[in-house]
Amino acid sequence: MRLLLNRLYAVAEILAASCLVAIALLVLAQVLGRLADGFLKLAGADPVGFLVPSLAEIAGFLLVGASFMALASTLRHAVHIRVSLAIANAPAGLRRLMETLVLLLGFGLVAYFTWFAAALAYDSYLYNEVSFGIIPIPLCIPQAVMALGLGVFALSLLDDLIVQLSGGTPSYVAAEAARGLEGVE
Amino acid sequence: MDISLVALLLGVVLLLGLTLGLWVAVALSACALVAMKLLVSAPSGPVLMTTVWGAANSWDLTALPMFIWMGEILFRSRISENMFTGLAPWMQNLPGRLLHVNILGCGIFAAVSGSSAATTATIGKMALPELMKRGYDEKLAIGTLAGSGTLGLLIPPSIILIVYGAATEQSIARLFIAGVLPGAMLCALFMGYVAIWALINKSKMPGADEPVPLLARIRATRSLFPVLLLIVGVIGSIYAGLASPTEAAAVGVLLSLGLSAWYGTLSRASFAEALIGATRTSCMIAFILAGAAMLTVAMGYTGIPRELAGWIGSLDLSPYALLAALTLFFIVLGCFLDGISVVVLTTSVILPMVQAAGLDLIWFGIYLVLVVEMSQITPPVGFNLFVLQAMTGRNIFQVARMALPFFLIMILAVALIVAYPGLALWLPETMLAN
Amino acid sequence: ETKWDMPTPYGDGNFHTKNIAAFAEDVSTATNGSLTIQIHSAGSLFKHPEIKNAVRKGLAPIGEVLVSRLANEDPIFEVDSVPFLATSYDAARKLYDASKPVLEKKLADQDLVLLFAVPWPPQGIYAKKELSSLDDLKGVKFRAYNASTEKIAQLAGAVPTQVEVPDIPTAFSTGRVDAMITSPSTGADTKAWDYLTHYHDTQAWLPKNMVIVNKAAFDALSDAEKQAVLDAAAKAEARGWEASKAETAEKTKVLADNGITIVEPSAALVEGFGKIGAQMVEEWKAAAGADGAAVIETFNK
Ligand code: NA
Ligand code: NA
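A: This is the predicted complex of the input protein with sodium ion.
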């Protein structure tokens, strides 16, 4: 089970990173197209006018993938920001209580948002909502990715909540401690 | 319920959540949800998720992960080390020495990037480890980064000026040009502070290097060439008409990969590490932006910022008193909301007051950006603080403490452009005079 | 007492927003304050792409949208943006009247009620040189923001180029784009003289903004309130069309006063665009099916 979950978080993160690579490739294709036209013009030839259709919209959708699919893994590596001043200095008992509360609230809220993100995607599917630009892209696709990313995030919070309740150390607390030992980069 | 009481209650909810140790984005969304449930009849879940969708799926925002990725690649190459080696002999006699690289680096990078988070993250990733290695004072190094990272908003291109220009129908070209001199002035003020600090705190500065003969200096300068190539490549792609400012970020990624390959530091492993690092950092920022967007829309429905701004308008203040009141108002609002939200939520109410007071709208845009820049480094919600917390492991209150002198310098800068409006207006009036 | 939050896409200085502010005022006065409308201009509550759905789902009871933003959902929403179909205020009015029943039907499918629609000034071509015939557009980088503007550029032999709105000044200054088609309002509001030189008054089409209301929210009003809203809407529509005409004259003058050359399109240019228009009308009719054909038939009567 542990292995399966860890693999899920890792796969989601790889998808997120792939979205960033895709953004870079699409933008660079457009830039190189303009560069080629510049050279053609210098050579006195007609421009090709290469165009990545709906570049801005597609890049925006890919950014949604990059941002949301990485949520869980970013949590587990303690990169999400929080103010740990109080919790770090609290006595052990209080600290456990606070951490449990943080995980309960975090899971509750993220699960709530996951539900409404899924509802948003489903509604776009029902009403055939499409993007405005040159290529009509069904909005339910990137919106479903957003819901999926939030879902994996909610799962990872539940995962850590269960670990915390069964007396273990949540992933991000372990990561925070490990980073503390290494000192400031 | 009285509106200021509600505002207070929501502030307390946010602070409680943050103190408990909730992630910033979660605390912001919790505050947004409480505000919606208490005060707004529109369905909370759909409103908040529609807003998150609108905020997350943004073309302009794509530049942010690209620039962060660029920083991660450069951090893993030898480029920053070389840059500092090349610059060190030249900065030997300037009080504060290489600390100025933070400020100038941010100033130059701001000419490419429209956001302060991207500026802070990219320059910080490159400069901070080098400065630490060379024994510079950590507090000042982090403080200069936090402060000068905000230049990303003032020096064109700037996301905030675009938002302001669109809302007020001011020329974006003029706003951009108007930001140049105040940006340079702020740079100079920051550098002046660092120089004075270095003169007073000689003991906290690392020992001076051996003096380097001129010929050796010039030889060392060759190692600046790659950085120069990168800057010229990215800025040049914009001015040669090859890339929009947003697209230039991807050009930066490509050029950084090229340089890393040139140095022999590009490998499968370093590529993957940089990419994953960028993915996580930009995810962290995007998550907070989503939380901030939720709070913004909740504020839009509740009308709290609108009513507070309207209350200032009802006081019938003289122009200077109005500006003083607005500055205070923006600073307080900026502690809890991000800068763009502050502009978006209040322009409709504030603009008529500003026009009635006879203030120039281009000038006011620059004033607004300066004031909003401060919100980037005020706790508990300040994006530069978050970026630096992630980078250094210091908590945001420590980082905010380090950034405090720079916050005060920005207040000075505001006073200066109020006293000398020409600082903002001279350049656009001269350059675009018909 | 009911309070409606109303997201709109444009800033307070825009003539559409001003018209809507007057509409809100009228509603409030006519209902003695029992229905008030809080305008959230410049996308400050919901951004333009989200406004229609926000109203459909009742997140905001009322809102303003550019009709042709929905063109990818259904070609009917593009009717006012088919180039060179209706090129004057009178023709645009006739086209609006012809298309209104089917527009209302399509909106009703999404539980939306059309309150009123107001046109933008006619679309003209901005460029960095004078265009005296289609030949002058050969190889020119022409701004395309949707399938239809991409098609115009292609048919004119220009190079379609995507530029986002906030990027327009930079794109012109750095040579990523050489020409665009938009209204004198947008040109004057973005101070087009900072980055280009010529405006060609081609009057290609008159796109409209519409104010839509969520059906459930509307039905929840008292009969008196409903009537007040409808009356104010009718007034706003009439006022808006006149304001749009005044806007055209005023903003064209602003362009001229700031040194932009206003070009009356040459016969050759008109003829060239006429051909493009005829082809695009046929293509639109094919895409819009029976509904579209019926609209064109009524329009041509
Ligand atoms: Na900038
Ligand atoms: Na702040």
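Residues 2-178 of chain A form one domain. The radius of gyration of chain A is 22 Å.
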